[in-house]
Design a protein that fits this description.
globular, 8 strands, 19% strand, alpha+beta, endopeptidase fold (from Nostoc punctiforme), 6-stranded antiparallel sheet
């Protein structure tokens, strides 16, 4: 029990430190412009989602997990982050979450949007949170931990399926 309390306190300290660092720097760096159409700019909700999610890096993966104490699977992490960071109820498996979002083009991604991958020979079988600069945070698989990966990495670039927006800033 004391271990869990210490880990929770450490995560809270990390999140507060990151928040202070972002405030001191004026926020997240600007996203590259979108060549066609209206650019989607990262707003407060997106920044809140990313900041909260980054505090979960290194939490253990657990199939069906929905809390930091129990561990996370990909959809459990997304559900937890959206609920705790911005009070938005996004629930279900990755495919269920995808159905509820607004489709966006890959070049329109902004921090806080969700990215979906075909990792099990099935569209929308994996979900992560886009954090900017072509990177995303996710709970990847059994025997791993919540981590940040590049969407350009061979494994993920070949399996990228779609992106969804769930809020406007």
């Amino acid at each position: 029990m004391a271990n869990t309390s210490c880990l929770s306190s450490l995560r809270i300290c990390i999140v507060w430190f990151a928040a202070l660092a972002l405030a001191a720097c004026g926020g997240l760096p600007p996203e590259p412009s979108v060549p066609h159409g209206r650019a989607r700019v990262a707003g407060k909700k997106g920044q809140d989602v990313v900041l909260f999610a980054m505090g979960l890096v290194d939490v253990a993966y657990r199939f069906g997990g929905k809390t930091p104490e129990a561990g996370f699977d990909c959809s459990g992490m997304v559900t937890y982050v959206y609920r705790e960071a911005i009070g938005l109820g996004v629930t279900g498996r990755a495919v269920d979450i995808a159905r509820k979002g607004r489709p966006i083009a890959k070049n329109e991604l902004r921090p806080g949007d969700l990215v979906f991958f075909n990792t099990l020979n099935s569209p929308f079988s994996h979900v992560g949170i886009y954090i900017g600069e072509n990177r995303f945070i996710h709970a990847p698989s059994t025997n791993s931990r919540v981590r940040v990966d590049s969407m350009s990495a061979s494994y993920y670039s070949k399996r990228f399926h779609a992106a969804r927006a769930y809020f406007d800033n």
